[in-house]
Design brief:
Elements (H helix, E strand, L loop, with lengths): L1 H16 L13 H4 L11 E6 L3 H7 L5 E7 L3 H10 L4 E3 L2 H5 L6 E4 L6 H10 L3 E4 L7 H13 L4 E3 L7 H11 L6 E7 L21 H5 L9 H4 L17 H4 L1 H12 L8 E4 L8 E4 L5 E5 L6 E5 L3 E5 L2 E5 L21 H11 L7 H19 L5 E2 L11 H4 L13
Parallel strand pairs: 1-2, 1-4, 2-3, 4-5, 5-6, 7-10
Antiparallel strand pairs: 7-11, 8-9, 8-14, 9-10, 11-12, 12-13
């Protein structure tokens, strides 16, 4: 990013020195050029492109200070026009792969429907771009691991959009859990997020002008256009349909189960057993961790969990945490206690890490592991009431070919990974 442009700048200065054109007498310099008064120097400005700029894609495109959006890509020309107009003009592309060819592009945000997350992110990291990907990270466990390996291979900075990690309430609540304020945790309760279903029986409707429906479907099976598939949520939206998403199990679950994983210290691991009471889309799901901790998706809060220990309970969710008894949450976290990764702005944490090359708060491995717990919940319902053993190191169901066939799914030609 800045290093590449700085190298080019130095080469330019070397070439110009012999011409005596360095303007050594010039002394008046605008403050923003030097980065004074909180301004970001141009050499440190992260140049961003947005892939998928519908509702959610526009939100994550505003990553934070010190960035500039120079291009956007979307299969719907209406979205491209609206975003370009709102930003006073930027380059637009109907094929994101063309945008990724730009050498001046440092990073991209990916706000497509879920079934496009991994293909877009793979192409981006292969093109040398850093990535902010909206959660959930993946459509399947297997493709999530493929992406995680690629991010490491190409040494990219990758932020998963599980932005609750960058909130005070979730971080502090998980610090209370990790430092034993509720004692030894034995049970966690999360929300019973519903699984997806198939969009059968929807009538074919005219494709809106300017929408490339074939490209929107991409690796998913072919379905005729219907507004109830095209819209993201409600009535019911693609997030409810299995070809395009893991349902709210991966939608809201990627927030809630991510916080539970954080509180349990499982960022690089996961449960060892999972089962569901029935195949119902809203059936309760149960997980067992190697430590003996039981996680039940039953009546817990959406976006978090209730951690139950031998000294009390700590509830952690979006915008709030609470303790029973309340006294266990009153003692401050001390310097000798375990401290969790601090970030007060998810997008700016990503931008800072692009400059420093550190890993962000919701790095690729974190995003993959939390999303895997969501996928396991869906698989448990599809195979209910069987108890499934899970190996979080090898990421397989040991000696269980019936379960392992759900680790990935077929993709249409030519949209293979």
């Amino acid at each position: 990013m800045a290093a590449r442009r700085e190298e080019a700048r130095r080469e330019f200065l070397k070439a110009s020195a012999g011409l005596g054109a360095l303007w050594t007498g010039l002394r008046v310099v605008r403050p923003q050029v030097l980065g004074a008064e909180g301004k970001t120097p141009p050499s440190d400005t992260v140049l961003i492109g947005g892939i998928g700029v519908g509702r959610q894609g526009r939100g994550i495109l505003a990553a934070g200070r010190g960035s500039k959006v120079i291009a956007v890509a979307d299969v719907y020309r209406k979205h491209l026009y609206e975003v370009a107009q709102s930003r006073g003009g930027c380059d637009t592309y109907e094929d994101y792969r063309k945008m990724l060819e730009r050498p001046d592009l440092d990073a991209v945000t990916v706000g497509t429907p879920d079934h496009w997350h991994v293909p877009c992110c793979l192409h981006a990291v292969e093109a040398g771009k850093d990535v902010y990907c909206e959660k959930p990270l993946s459509l399947t466990i297997a493709e999530g691991r493929v992406l995680a390996k690629a991010v490491r291979r190409y040494a990219r900075v990758f932020q998963t959009g599980s932005m609750q990690r960058s909130s005070f309430h979730c971080r502090h609540g998980c610090e209370l859990v990790r430092n034993g304020r509720a004692g030894k945790i034995h049970t966690v309760h999360g929300a019973c997020y519903p699984s997806p279903w198939y969009p059968e029986g929807l009538a074919a409707e005219p494709v809106p002008e300017g929408l490339d429906w074939e490209m929107w479907l991409g690796p998913a099976p072919v379905y005729p256009y219907n507004v109830n598939i095209h819209r993201p949520r409600a009535k019911p939206g693609w997030i409810s349909f299995e070809p395009f998403s893991g349902g709210e199990m991966t939608g809201w679950g990627s927030h809630g189960l991510d916080i539970i994983q954080w509180g349990l210290g499982m960022d690089e691991s996961g449960p060892v057993e999972v089962w569901a009471d029935s195949a119902d889309l809203r059936s309760q799901v149960h997980y067992r961790y190697a430590s003996g901790v039981m996680l039940h998706l039953d009546s817990g809060p959406a976006g978090g969990g209730i951690f139950v220990g031998d000294k009390g309970e700590i509830m952690v969710t979006r915008g709030a945490f609470s303790c029973k008894p309340k006294e266990i949450g009153e003692a401050p976290i001390t310097p000798s206690d375990e401290r969790l990764y601090f970030s007060n702005h998810h997008g700016e944490n990503w931008l800072d890490c692009i400059r420093t090359r550190r890993r962000p708060i919701c790095d690729i491995e974190v995003g993959h592991r939390s999303c895997t717990v969501c996928h396991l919940g869906n698989i448990a319902r599809w195979l209910a009431p069987r108890h499934l053993k899970w190996d979080p190191d090898k990421e397989v169901f040991p000696d269980d070919p019936d379960a392992n066939r759900y680790l990935d799914r077929p993709r249409r030609e030519p949209y293979r990974l």
